[in-house]
Amino acid sequence: MDTYDVVVVGGGPAGEVVADRTVRSGLTTVVVEAEAVGGECSYRACVPSKALLRPGAARAEARSVEGARQAVTAALDPVHVLARRDRFTGRGDDTGQADWLGGAGIALVRGHGRLAGERRVEVTEADGGVRTLRARRAVVVCTGTEPALPPVEGIDRIGVWTNRQATTVDAVPGRLVVIGGGVVACEMATAWRSLGSSVTLLVRDQALLSDWEPCAGEEVTRGLNDLGVTVRFGVSAVRVARDDATRTVTVDTDDGTTLVCDEVLAAVGRRPRTADLGLDSVGVPAGDWLPVDDTCRVTAVEGDWLYAVGDVNRRAPLTHMAKYQARACAAAIAERAAGRPAVTGDRQPWSAEADRFAVPQAVFTRPEVASVGLTERAAREAALAVRVVEYRIDDVAGAALHADGYRGLAKLVVDEGRGVVVGCTLTGPMATELIHTATVAVVGEVPLERLWHAVPAFPTVSEVWLRLLEAYGL
C-alpha cells in the first residue's frame, strides 16, 4: 500500500490545482488519472472549442472595420483552423502536463481510481493490476462530468457527437443538426457554421441560454441567424437513424418534420462521473452529484477527509470556478492538517463562497455574451431591493472606434439596500474581456459612490462603466 497525505482522483484542471497547492503546503500528493492529464477542458472542451471559434471571430473583427474589410475577402481555411486547434491540444497527448506534475513534485498513477473505504483508493491499472493508495489527510474527487444524451429514439446507435467529437473531428460536416440551446450548443453551432457547415439548432425551450438575462439569448439568436444558422424554438428531436449506405442521418422532430444531415451533436447537459467511483464503500449512492460545503468537503461523509472539487459537486460547473474551488479546498486541507479548524465564512482563503454570488461566465459566440452574479429575476427572487440599469455599448466612443456597426448591451443589477452591483450581463464584441471588471465590483461589494471614482480611459469600450453610473444617477 502506497501512502500519501493527499490522494486526488482525477487529473483535470481541478485535480492539478489541488495537487499543486497541497504540495506547496508541504503535503505529499498523488494524482490518479484514467485518461489524459489535463482533463476534458484541455483536449475536448474549453481549449479546442475556443481554438475553433477564434479564427471566425478574428475574421469578423477585421471585416467590421472599414479599410481592413477590403483586405479580408476569403473564407476561413478549415485545414489551417483544425491544425491550429491541434497545436493547442496536442491531439490528446498529455506528455507536457504529465511532465509538469513530476516537476511540481506530484506523483502520478495512471488507472481508474475507486474509493475502497475511508481514506483508501484502489487503482485498476492498464495491465489489470490493482494498486491501493492510502491518504493520511484527504481524498479529493475531481472526476468531473460526462455528456448526457437526450431521450431520443436511436440516439445511441448513430455515432452521435457530444462535445468530445464536436471539438476533435478532422473534417467539416456538410450538414450538422445540434440538439440543445445552452453554451455548448451555441458555441459549436457558431464554430461549425463559420467553417462552412449548414447548421440547424433544435431548441426545446423558447429561448437560447434560458438561465441568462433574456437579452443574452436574444443577441446570440440574432448572431446565429446572421451567420446563417437555422434556429428552431420549441422543437425536439424524437427519433434519429443513420443510413448504412449513405451514412446520412434522418432526424424526426415532434412537430412532424424530418431533417437530413451528416452529423448530430447532442448538447443537452452533463451528468456526474461518479457511477463507478466506489461511493457505496463510504455510504454515498453511486452516480449522484457530491454536495459539499464551502471548503469542498463532502457533507454526506463524516470526518474531514473526503472532498469533491469542480463540476462533480455541481456548485459552479465551469473550469475557472473548479480551479477556484481547488485553491480553497487545498487551503482547507492544509489548515486542517495543521490542526486548525478551517472555519468557513469571513472571506477566508479556504472558503469557496463566490460560488454562490459571483460566478463569471463567458460565451464565445458572435456576438460574445458574458455575465457575473445574479440576474434580475434571481435578485428579485432573493427579495433584494432591485434596480436595473441598462446602457447601449454602441453609444460609447470606444465601441464605435473598435468596430463599424458595433452592437452591444450592458445591464447592471443593483442592490439598492447596500448600494452595490450584484449582477452584470454584457453582450457584444469584447464582452468576455470586459466582464472581469464587473466581477471585481461584485466580489468587492464596491459601493457605487466609490466605483464612480474608477475612471475608465478614453476612448475605450470600458467607458461604458461611466455611462452606466451616469444612467444610475451619479
UniProtKB/TrEMBL annotation:
Keyword hit for NAD: yes
Keyword terms: FAD, Flavoprotein, NAD
Obligatory cofactor(s): FAD
Protein name: NAD(P)/FAD-dependent oxidoreductase
Keyword check for NAD: yes
Homology family: Belongs to the class-I pyridine nucleotide-disulfide oxidoreductase family.
Domain Pyridine nucleotide-disulphide oxidoreductase dimerisation intervals: 359-465
Residue stretches making up the FAD/NAD(P)-binding domain: 4-326
